[in-house]
Specification:
about 130 residues, alpha+beta, about 15% strand
Amino acid sequence: MRVFALQLQRSPAYFRTLLDILNVLINFFYGDKLPQDETLLKMQSLLQVYAADSADLVSRYFRERHREQKALQDGAPRSHNAPNLGSITIRCQMLNEHLRVEVLNARNLRPPDPQAGTYIQLITQLSQVTQ
């Protein structure tokens, strides 16, 4: 349903109607008790996103970013053992003998040592191929 409805470029009103129907069904089958079905909750969450207008989507994005930043400040534990040092997306380009590095996106960068400042270490090994 998701792919088909999106390919038809349905309006947010269409998805709001589907969301209303889903909420009625959830209320009918579960009553006041919240469902624990992961598939059902994911479907409800996706319909909420598809039913949102631009202002709602922007608001949702900034709320999510605020939650992420708050979790980092509070030192929330991560789900896996690797330390969270953040993520960075870069684009590299060789121009003659110069390496151009462009930072496209940087999120949640943290220093590996709390006493040190935030930094990025870029290690490259360039070799010139001769023909």
